[in-house]
Design goal:
Blueprint lengths: L10 E2 L13 H4 L12 H10 L8 H23 L19 E2 L3 E8 L18 H4 L7 E8 L9 E8 L4 H4 L4 E4 L2 E4 L4 H10 L1 E10 L2 E4 L7 E3 L4 E5 L18 E3 L4 E6 L5 E5 L17 H6 L31 E4 L9 E3 L12 E3 L5 E6 L3 E3 L1 E6 L8 H4 L6 E8 L4 E6 L16 H6 L1 H8 L4 E2 L1 E6 L6 E5 L23 E7 L8 E9 L25 E6 L5 E5 L4 H4 L4 E5 L9 E6 L5 E7 L5 E7 L36 E7 L8
Parallel strand pairs: 1-7, 11-16
Antiparallel strand pairs: 2-31, 3-34, 4-5, 5-8, 6-7, 8-9, 8-10, 11-12, 13-14, 14-15, 15-16, 17-18, 18-20, 19-23, 20-21, 21-22, 22-27, 24-25, 25-26, 26-27, 28-29, 29-30, 30-31, 32-33, 33-34
Helix pairs in contact: 2-3
The protein binds MU-OXO-diiron (FEO) and calcium ion (2 copies).
Amino acid sequence: MTQDASEPTMADETDHESTFGASLLEHEDAAPQNPTDNPTMGELIGQRFSRRGLLKGALAVSAISATVGTVALETAGQARAEGAPSAFAFKEVEVGVDADHHVAEGYDAQVLLRWGDPLTPDAPAFDPARQSPEAQAKQFGYNNDFVGYLPMPGAADPSAHGLLFVNHEYTNPHLMFPGVVEVKDGKPVMKNATEERFRIEAMAHGATIAEIRRSEGRWALVRDSRFNRRITVATEMALSGPVAGSERVKTQADASGRKVFGTLNNCSGAMTPWGTFLSGEENFHGYFSGKLPEGHREEANYKRLAIPSAPYGWGRFEERFDLAKEPNEANRFGWVIEVDPFDPHSVPKKRTALGRFKHEGADNIVTRDGRVAVYLGDDERFDYVYKFVTERRFDPKDRAANLDLLDSGTLHVAKFSADGTLAWLPLVFGQGPLTPANGFTSQADVLIETRRAGDLLGATKMDRPEDITPNPVTGRVYVMLTNNTSRKPEQVDAVNPRAKNAFGHIIEISEDGGDHASTSGRWEILLTCGDPSVATVGASFSTDTSRNGWFGMPDNAVVDTAGRLWVATDGNNVKETGRTDGLWAVDTEGAARRTSKLFYRVPHGAELCGPCFTPDDTTAFVAVQHPGDDGPDWPEFGRRSYYEDLSTRWPDFKPDMPVRPSVVAITRKGGGKIGV
Ligand code: FEO
Ligand code: CA
Ligand code: CA
């Protein structure tokens, strides 16, 4: 979800829910949580440019802007001169805002799974006026985010029959339920959650595993599949890796410190080479309420993560979410979970070796020597980019031997330098400052307080790291930095070069020796985002990019099998940019580098998540999240959108059916690879 909305959109009945809608957590996140004065590289920048005789000291900021501009101009000139042969061939979609979604000409966008769709044979049909926790637990959840696809073993066509894994990040009660919003003194006000509403919302969080099959060009759920499964906040999971059994994760309900119920705010994720799914627990702080007992050891730890935060306040309904009653429960969230979808009874594992923070995704790639590198973003303003490298090698011939690969290895945090180099600093107990002198008595402590460990190592404060996507064809890695309007002019640095960065940027990393296990690399900025026709924005799209082609707020990203980059966005301001979020195709190679084209756009109020291609690139699955939210941003609607008065009823467009977050399957009419 976007964190940049600055105005509360509706008056509230109580202070339990200070805002609602897409804003449920964004206001809580608005305050950056990194208290350190780790250098933002201003000094290093000064040195770098001084050496070039370009500037000194305080002039650094304007000089950086000038440098970005120069790069963009050179690229643009080159693009024009060489005719910029793009890797993509499709007629791009026109930007705009309306109640429906739109895909490029010649393609079909089929709604495959909608919130409330029954998943299991015994699941009831969706009845929005009479939803229940029991029904929701067997139906597709809310606010689909990450989408992953794994072919069914032995499938005649691996790209026509597989398991889909979908995250359900959070809930929007004002769009989900009748009677939640009432108008008082002309203002829409959201009522407090009831216990029943809480229980439904809890069951609408988590993830879905669904067997799907394509026949005659249409995808469909295999309704009687034994693999179809909901994962919710009630699903039993195991804490696995160095933190399992730590005193700091033991609770009244779990004296072992190894057994956790549920997962929260699952944002992005990834597939692994051994056929499992990873899913990141992101804004988990927003579910906890209450106060830690005075002087509790977790005070600093929780403050660094903004725990508790008001939006959901589930401690009202379930004691474990109340810090006063269960002070350690919040240490059991903020991890990457791993799920084996091919065993419908598998217990998901929280892979603690990958650190604890507001995890976006966990995209990964096999290293030169056969280990696995997992790239991890901590989505908060001024927080860090991480990489985990397994200790052991991936064995392509022995799936079972890989199932616990992610329990041992080394987590690193990124330090970007102004000379274009990058160091991956190991977060290992006993090394450097990660010692008892700083309160760490074990690797479990380092992992539970990953952010503080990164602070002490002097990691680089980034503009909200989202998906980090390795490109198996070129070996380069793409880091989505979605925005950071809190960055002040004196805080800009080479790798986060814009103050009040409203549109975000994309960094390209080349690991040294082309090896993803390397602890050093080089980086450059692929794209500074935003409208290139507005000089003050400082966007660096090529001049071959049309007015439809530019975007802001890169969030999710995927590289197709041809090695081409696709970027999904979160938060393009409808009123200011005249465009909804969508899926853009971005050239990264040759003369067309930095040329972008719009392939698909979402209905009003939505963001786009989870692009995922089948192995043959003939289907792209995308997730349309929180359609119909907001409202005042779209002048044609002009008022707050809620269940009884929605800005869109996508995808059903029936008067008795609310707007429904949905996964969409995009295919080429008549078949064939997408975008070529
Ligand atoms: Fe849930 Fe970082 O987006
Ligand atoms: Ca998002
Ligand atoms: Ca995201």
